[in-house]
Amino acid sequence: MLPKFLPMKKEIIFLTGIFEILAGIGLLFAELRYSTGVLLIVFFILILPANIKAAIDHLDYQKGTLDGKGLNYLWFRVPMQVFLILWVWYFAVRG
User: Fold this and answer.
1) Is 4 among the domain residues?
2) Between 17 and 73, where is the model more confident?
3) Position 66 in a domain
4) CA dihedral in degrees (68, 47, 79, 73; nearest 10)?
5) Which helix (H) or strand (E) holds 77?
6) Engineering a disulfide at 26: which of 9, 17, 36, 68 sits with its beta carbon 3.0 to 4.6 angstroms away?
7) What DSSP letter does each residue of 46-66 carry, written as one string?
8) Which domain holds residue 66?
9) What is the DSSP string of 6-44?
10) Counted domains in the chain
């Protein structure tokens, strides 16, 4: 999913996974909820290009091959990310 010019792709993916787990935990604590929510919204916006690139490249997420559904996947993924952004905003950021 990451562009070829980025080094250490596996490490970046691993770190984003750790970030997602920590963010989920951060949402559980009232004093961290707002800042965690803002960070998650920024994160969702930043990973959208990677999802678009993966769809253009026809990446199959389950097999790791380049014979996936392609751009049809975006009909699901983009609205899902918009939903997640709105969900996090509603429950964590709006106050």
Assistant:
1) no
2) 17
3) yes
4) -10
5) helix 74-88
6) 36
7) HHHHHHHHHHHTT-BTTTTBS
8) 32-93
9) -S-HHHHHHHHHHHHHHHHHHTTSHHHHHHHHHHHHHHH
10) 1
* pLDDT digit string, tens, across residues 18-67: 999 999 999 999 999 999 999 999 999 998 888 888 778 887 767 777 78
Q: Calculate helix-pair angle for 30-56, 9-26, nearest 10 degrees.
A: 150
pLDDT digits (tens, 9 = 90+) for 5-20: 889 988 998 999 999 9
47 is a domain residue: yes
> Is 17 inside any structural domain?
no
Placement of tokens 């604590």 in the chain = 29
Sign of the Cα torsion 38, 39, 44, 45 reads positive
